[in-house]
Amino acid sequence: MRTFIFAMFPLVTLATACAPPGRPAPASPSVLPLRTLRLYETGVGYFEREGTLSRGEQAGLPVPAGHLDDALKTLVVLSAGGKSQVDGIEFGSSLSHGMARAMAGLSQDAETPLTYEALLASLEGSMVEVRSPSRVVVGRLVHVERLTEAATSSETGAAGKDTKESKDAARTADRGLKLTLLAAGSELVQMGSAEIGSVRPIDPAQASRLDAALESLLSRGGQSHHALRLLGEPGAKVTLGYIAETPVWRTTYRLVQPAEGPAKLQAWALLHNDTDENWNDVRVDLVNGRPDSFLFPLAAPRYARRTLVTPENELSTVPQLMGRTADTLWGDHVDDAGGSAGFGASGYGSAGGASGSGFGHGGIGSIGHFGASGADAGSSLLEVGDLAGVSQASGVEAGALFVYGMASAVALRAHCSALVPFLQEVVEAEPTTWIDEANLSTSRSAVRFVNSTSQTLPPGTIAFFSAGGFAGESALDRLKPKERRFVTFGVDLDVEAKREEVRRSESVQRLSFSGDWLREHFIKTTDAAWTIENRAAKPRTVTVALRLDRNSRLTGADAADFDEATSKPLIAFKVAARSKLERSVQSVEGLSRGVGFAQLTSKHLAELAAKSELAAGDRAVAAEGAVRAKSLEDGRGELARAREELVRLDKELARLRDDAKSVGDRGALTQPLVARIVTREDDVRLRGERIEALEKEVTQRAAALRESLGKLTPG
Fold it and tell me: What is the Cα–Cα distance from 608 to 596, expressed in whole angstroms?
């Protein structure tokens, strides 16, 4: 029995830097053969490789740079004896673009192109060898300068033409680069780019850093390969496993329905080999499950930030008088209005640094639940029947993952795809015609499909074949064993259905009150006449999806069913060939509807209290509620009238005050107006006090009504 040994492997430098200076880099390792591949729905694959570490040969793993982090965080050593046969894994360090630019001395701006000038400028300060046809100069590269001069009219193409370009500011022509070097004997040498054949850094470390940086910056991103070299004793047999990103495997089904005999389901998987390696005799497993997997930056070296602590007194690293005099520091002060005695001082300061995650299936319909709209919903107090009870048991999964092993090893070339079969079993698939009561004008060809296999079926498209040819296509969502679906795949032109409602009645049985909603629980009985016509030469089973609540009872159909996927009750009719079926179907539903407290009226409560079919206790509460609701309505009416009167008094008072302002201090005319204003002010005050009292009274009457309705059963 194999044991899993999780190993930690040391991070080392880039492959070219692993070899000592002056020695060739390690030879590319031979690839450890791929034996097993397990593909998951989450877009990862488990790669298992097995082989022997040969003498004089390095075995390795071909891992794209983009997959290196995944491989390092999941690499596992498998062995029969419980002992690891691998001492470690060596690989070239992964460099971020920022680190690569820093190593090469290039601009940290990722948008800056890697030009000849930029690469030469990155070598400033380094010892270089510059070759030209006439000489070789070895020295320190001091400066790289681009030479320009004013462009002539012939160079700009504007000679003799009065163009917009000729009127612009003088443009410059590129004259190439000039290199300044400090050669032996402190000789300054200047060379133009026109005479330069090549520039080579002499320091091996500098060359290695530049090579490593450019390898990262110029590679094909995540597709460049990192050779992971296995370290271990020659002759050791090793088995390694790791995960890497892979294309998601997808499923497509075919359901073959012969004229005689059971239906057969074929399942095909679409596989993609997006690697650079051919898969030769690889065992492939398809996993129908979704284990968690995430991306984590692990391979590239990381550096912690440290706080910069500086001396209390800021001191310069450059002497004040280096290249300058005290007079220069002091300045001329030509514009000073007057002089002053004393010493002048100048200081230099520098700022310190700081450290700084299938197929969607649209439902045919759904049953609404009770909400603020007051729409009819299933009753919580009346039990009429559970139509969902006629459906089969829910599917059961025995585990989190289901593995489909391919019957034979897979041979798939690099960057190729394949459609391979992985399942062929007899299943329960009963043909039927599907009709939705909400759209009787369209009949659909369908099957009542049951996952009678022992494993979960992954989501995928499904094509139907019957009568010797193609019948239509649809999609399956994920199905556990024993789960079923009604799947439609085409229009059935041979079946037509009509429905005529004969009678409908409602009978309120119970009342409930909670959350400021009064609910009426009632029995709704509907008698309908159905006419089903089958013009086909074969009998038909017609399944009709009804707009009923599951708390219902049905009579008159050949069979009753329930579709869990759409929460729809179903009835079925068996119709003979070339015939018309007429049937009366009665449905009895236990429903409820609600009225918000603010919309309750004494009239409605009185009507409920008069219903003989209503439970006696509920009738008594409704009668008491009607009285209290009438008292509340009277109080609200009186309050509304008082507020209207207050508005009228406020307007009259405002008019009197305007009249008083226009009259002014005129003796006899002023006194009557003042008296009327005082009277109206008293009226407004008294009316306001009355409104406050009425508001309290209305609140008390509303509380009394709630208390009365609170005697009902919550629900």
Answer: 15
Q: Looking at the DSSP assignment, which residues form a beta bridge with residue 430?
A: 448
Structural domain boundaries, residue 696: 610-709
Number of structural domains, the chain?
A: 3
Number of H-type helices and E-type strands within the chain: 11, 32
pLDDT at 433: 96
Same domain, 626 and 682: yes
CA dihedral 464, 465, 470, 474 (to 10 degrees): 0
pLDDT tens-place string over residues 594-643: 999 999 999 999 999 999 999 999 999 999 999 999 999 999 999 999 99
Given a contact cutoff of 8 angstroms between Cβ atoms, the answer to whether 457 and 267 are in contact is: yes
C-alpha separations of 73 from 9, 243, 299 in Å: 10, 9, 9
pLDDT, one tens digit per residue, over 31-69 is 788 999 999 888 889 999 888 776 655 666 777 767 778
Q: What is the DSSP letter of 207?
A: H
The domain boundary, picked from 246, 261, 287, lies at 246
Task: Look at the pTM and tell me if it is higher than 0.85.
Answer: no
Per-residue confidence band for 159, with pLDDT thresholds at 50, 70 and 90: very low
User: 615 and 541: one domain?
Assistant: no
How does residue 423 score in pLDDT terms, banded at 50, 70 and 90? confident
**Nearest Cα to Cα of residue 545 among 561, 568, 566, 565:** 568
Strand order in 198-201's β-sheet? 187-192, 172-183, 136-150, 127-131, 198-201
Percent of the chain with pLDDT over 70: 72
Is residue 402 over pLDDT 80?
A: no
d(CA 446, CA 448): 7
Residue 227: the pLDDT is: 62
Residues 563, 626, single domain; the answer is no
Q: Please enumerate, as own/partner, the contacts of 643-651 that have beta carbons within 8 Å and a separation of 24 or more.
A: 643/691, 645/687, 646/684, 646/687, 646/688, 646/691, 649/680, 649/683, 649/684, 649/687, 650/684
Q: Quick check: 283 and 35 in contact, CB under 8 A?
A: yes
Q: Which positions ≥6 away from 278 have C-beta within 8 Å?
A: 411, 412, 413, 414
The span from the CA of 42 to the CA of 173, in Å, is 57
Shared domain check, 624 and 537 = no
CB atoms within 10 A of CB 578: 13
pLDDT for the residue numbered 673: 80
Q: What does the alpha-carbon distance between residue 620 and residue 629 come to, in Å, rounded to a whole number? A: 14
The whole-angstrom separation of Cα 518 and Cα 714 is 9
Q: Which two tokens stand for residue 379?
A: 């009753």
Alpha-carbon distance values, 87 to 33, 60, 78 (Å): 19, 13, 13
Query: Is 593 contained in some domain?
Result: yes
DSSP string, 566-616: TTEEEEEEEE-TTEEEEEEEEEEEEEEEEEEGGG--HHHHHHHHT-TTS-H
Higher pLDDT, 15 or 665: 665
Q: Do the Cβ atoms of 184 and 193 come closer than 8 Å?
A: no
Residue 406 lies in a domain: yes
